[in-house]
């Protein structure tokens, strides 16, 4: 399975140049896969949280997971509007995701937060890189969407980061 | 990775008998994995739909996907309340899912509907089997949740099935 | 017209056994017919109420009628999901209903309440019997729906019964 | 059972002339009976719909049924405010209705729509005739209610009619 | 003070004929005065209600009073749109009202209801008469407003009337 | 008609001393009458407003009228809770009101505002005096209500006053 | 292009007589065109307003424009329900409109209000004339719609008119 | 167990003088206990109501119970803000309550209302007495809260009292 | 006072067998008493909470208390629908409750959570036992209600339990 | 009439350079004209739709028309904030619009969809070109608005395009 | 700049005595300045919070800041209603505020909470003192406003205080 | 106090280059300070407004003040997400603000509007300059936020400017 396709039957017309447009689509598909993977990882920690801050962190991760999930449909449909195909299955996600699965039996609250900081930082970087590709392709609509998601991702990083500080 | 665990650090107390309770937890985790996989498959078809009924089916599959997604958090948290661990990652889902990935370049609207009928019928059957395990375990809370999901799944099957009939 | 049918063109697929499933469908169709009939009877009394408690009873019967009406669509669609046909016409209702029509010119408020107690008590019994048929058919979805309607029916009976007591 | 009555115990006072007022009441009771019958027929088709437009038509008929049902209480209470008795039972409806029951095992989507066009056209005509009776009786309140229902009925006819055209 | 005026400084332009238009304005001003007076009378009884149906009747009269009050602004502004002056003061109301003040120390619940039946019946008649003047003046906007108020007034009469019946 | 009464049939029990309590009730009834009169006067000006600030002042007076009207029911019911009778009719209001009727054919916008400043200032003073009577009677509930109304009245005065200033 | 048509492919069935019905449709199409033109003219003035009452008039015209726009869909769909064709394009509007375009570089606030008074007065007259055609055609549904729009149009005229008075 | 305490670990800082402040806290704790007891008594009668006014009184007592319950959290938290401990258990309530338990098998509707009049009258008196203690302690925040509750309590008494009058 | 009664005046009719039905009613009354006691205990800890997690735990216990309180009215009314009497007073609760009062001056946050885990675990067990009695009595309506409450109770236990873990 | 003006009386101050700013204003006025024209064309097809997908496409075009209309006020006001004049009349629109009027008697559903694809594609291109002008003018506010509209326009194109595919 | 003024152009009329009234206005202006300063300080800590309770305290301080901000407009407008001038600028606030600025680079969470306890305690005291001035001036409206703010301030102190306790 | 800091304890991680990022943070802090200052200045004029347009301008400035305030939290939190410190106190604001305090005793309405035009124009310019810094720093999230605020600021300028024109 190729990483990006424009199947004849599904080629929504677009006046953007094909090469640059394809790069945007390819990069956004990677973001969709990572959003799915990070959503599940955040829910994993939401479900297996423990310790005195249980409710506080359980709620925090639920809010963050919901925020990540809400980016998937708009991003995937951007790819379709550009005339390419988007994510199709769990296997497809596994193939494209860069978020690391964590299937450990027990992860402490502190470790959960730290791992999510790393993932969100990486996601922020990729969102910004994709924004660069949009500029090259003159795809202002995708760019504007990404701007909002960069802010939300940096907000998640900030919350998680401040929470891991040990100095009370 | 075992299919089901009760890690010492995460063993919520329960007065239900362990053997029967474990079977419920194991079966519900399978349902969670399938709900994720069917959610993504339904969104796949929502995104790659085409033809004269585009808007109608696009909306139908969006409603069905949202309905499936909404079952995941309550089911996963039932497992946690029973003292076991639940889904942790994309890989974990891939390992447990029975829903088949479809990464074809082009699927006609009619074939999409037919494939979803099959998946929803299988899910309905598994929900009912898990309900039987709840009865054995005296787990009335999980059972009640499943009753509602069986109805919703049968509704999805009914809608999809009537839509595929050729006689106008 | 048979009391229950599974027309070839309308046979939603179901993994429940046919004999038991048919009994549920047949019984639920009777409930739908009775719900229609009791809805109209309750509105009849809502419209022809009189006496010093006019507003109080007029409102009471409006609430009860609305509650009864709201059971019809879910029940009828349960029958369709089971692969059978459901109610089709006023004549069909008349044929299946067990609720008695009351076309009297004048019914006193007290007699209205008493007559509705009887009808609701009968309906409660039939709902419970249908629930038994669901258990035999392993139809947990219909069963769960009925549980809620039994409670609502017993609430109507209780309100009507206490209201008819003469001791102020 | 007479078609219209003004029972002594239920004779709301009115300054409208009795003969003309009685004609309005009689005609409105016929409309109430037909609204019930058309509501059930529309729900019949909502429940037994099939084919590629299933969801679209299923929703269309649900909206139309809800719109028809909403006319019943205001119309029946107009009769009561005029000092006459209104609908009392399923049998009473069967006696007064002019809508034809359709208990066929299978009706195609196209035939359903066509049959409903006829029923709604007839209802539109009767609503307009009753409006004429209101003018004779100087019953401006009933008249104003009917004006709104004529528009809604013509809207149902329009939607159904355009949908049956074969030229795509 | 004249009963109706078209002060030079306040003569909103209108293409309706002056004589007929003036009659409508005059009649509507009488309705505004009566609506004020009946509002206060209904509140009087709302406040001085007593006996076993206290809450039921207290609420009934509050709903009726609110309904009457809501007619005042639209009616008064109709007069202004017709180019005439409308109600100006308590004294103006007292001069035009036909509703009878009841300053009795004690009025039984039954007598309250009966007195309000009479007032509402009279108001219904006047609303209908004013509607006739609108027809003569081709003032369809005022007419349409009155149609709605006739229905509401007949509803109040019906509720009050049925409540005064002694046969329980 | 006495200015205040405690009719045997309507004497809600109260542990407040009778003499002081009666003074509160008497004063509050005056406030209710004035609220009615000021409500009508404010609506009078709302309806007969003219000039370049028409919409602005029309809205201002509508808001102020609504605010005044909303004080009537709570105040009148305070009197009833104190065991006395309250306002009964237009005539009763005319007898107790201190607000002056203005039936002039034409009042300029500026004069309307000035006249309302005076009335609201007087009302503010009376509210404060009644608050003093509540303190004497230990009637903390009426007092608390009045505190809120004093603020609202001073707000009306402030808005009206600033609006009449000529220096732009 | 004819002013009104009943194309075979779009002839919604109607029991109203054709000649009178056609006159209604023709007249309503003119109203739709004028509503479009007046909407744009009102927005023109909303956008190019200036002077000390800027915000007040800017808001006033926005409310009026929104009110005018809201009449277009119901009126156009009345024509379709009567079996005729309705407005199709900017050119079609330009052909039917009687509202005069004003493309002046600068229009003072006072002149804007005056010009809108004229247009709204003319629209009120045409609405009333079309109502007369409805009466001839027995088209009570269109008539009822127009009654409401006449009132709204007269309200716009009243507001605009009072605002242009110079006497403060 | 003392009636009021300021445990070292729970002594919220306050600038109010300790003696007077303690008296307020002590008195408010009594009010909390009585609110609990009266809430349960009102629900007792809500549940065991009977007779022709069943629905009316059932609703009345539900509203009153909800109103009483809503006072508990604000009052208890006032005590905590004053630096004292508040209610801890059913036994604690039983110890402090002055409301009398009524465990009779059957209480007529009339007797229920009468008993609640007494309890609410007593509560009104205690609220007023506590308000006096607040004045002594300069505790304006608690005082303001109580003013609102006195009004609500007098409203409950008024409703109950008027309802028990026998003269219809 | 007996633990359960069916007073002649309050015997709502029921077709369930008396012996089994009585057992359900008796058990549900115990649940109502415990819900009251656990509600107060949870509020006790909500009010006397302290330490660095004050707001988090204060909110947690408020949510849990509200959830417990919401079970009381439906459960008590189930008993009434079964034809028996339910809870009547604080004394009645004290007699039936199995929840232990805790009137200690100071309880640490950690001890509060632990004590509530125990109470909720016990409540979960009793809810499940009562569910068994419902099955014996064929009381599907009470059973369905309890299923929902078992889940909510297990959720409370889970939250409290995870929060007490010391491993951060 | 010039295509763009900055009348002295309407020159909102701006720190953006005049030449580039004027180009933005000119281009945005063209977009406003086209939005009006496309709104009317989309409503044209919404009103004259026919065939088996009537309701589905009727709703689709209503949503798209509403979305287009909602861009007009923000765009026109951007021009005013830049210090230039914007659209004034139907004639002004006709002069600037590039959308083609279609006044054909009958247009098939398929042809309607195809024609709208073309218009929306052209609009998308113009929006993007105007965005380029904003970049030159450093007008970030207009640019941000356009980004959102580009996405919405591409969404309309995508929906319309997929719907025209013939492969079911 | 004087601390309080009654500029001739802004002297809203008031019947309260000038000397006492001026003292109230002066004191309220101090409260407004302190509310601004405490709002900013609370937001300062909301923004620079860190450590394991980050989200919990971040939310707590956001709620408290919003509560403080909401007091500013009502208080400032009380001063205007009393006929005096209120806060005009950042410099004016700096001149009147008694809240201490904290511009430290790093403040630990614990120190933040402690500092806010002190500020809120001081504010509570000042609110109470101003309430005393209102009593002297017979300004019941300002007094009532302050009563509510005292409670809210004591609530903030309580929450902050309990949170700083070290005993878990 | 430095104008911008990245304290070790508060250095949220960021992949943006430090020098450019610092410039953005520094500039945004200036915007936060100015937003506070302009908020207070706008409220100053909201409170001290006078003259015939009092209500209109009082409301206008309230809307504008609320719009300005709403920018503060998002901007300040952008600085924190970039790893720098933000505003801490009234003194800090005074140090950074460029908005000029106006503590004049009396400012005419016209002068208020003119002064606010200047401040808003300056703010628009600074927002645009900061947007330029964001482009240099590749900080697309802050940039997108600023785009929205530029539009809102230009809207405030436009409203204020048009309002000051003398030609009516
Ligand atoms: Fe952007
Ligand atoms: Fe269940
Ligand atoms: Fe169930
Ligand atoms: Fe009409
Ligand atoms: Fe009409
Ligand atoms: Fe108070
Ligand atoms: Fe009408
Ligand atoms: Fe107070
Ligand atoms: Fe159940
Ligand atoms: Fe942008
Ligand atoms: Fe107060
Ligand atoms: Fe952007
Ligand atoms: Zn989607
Ligand atoms: Zn969850
Ligand atoms: Zn349905
Ligand atoms: Zn009804
Ligand atoms: Zn009005
Ligand atoms: Zn009331
Ligand atoms: Zn439409
Ligand atoms: Zn609380
Ligand atoms: Zn209840
Ligand atoms: Zn606008
Ligand atoms: Zn304000
Ligand atoms: Zn924030």
UniProtKB/TrEMBL annotation, chains A, B, C, D, E, F, G, H, I, J, K, L:
Residues 28-160 form the Ferritin/DPS domain. InterPro entries: DPS_DNA-bd, Ferritin-like, Ferritin-like_SF, Ferritin_DPS_dom. GO terms for molecular function: ferric iron binding. It comes from the Bacteria. Belongs to the Dps family. This is Ferritin/DPS domain-containing protein. The lineage of its organism: Bacteria, Pseudomonadati, Bacteroidota, Cytophagia, Cytophagales.
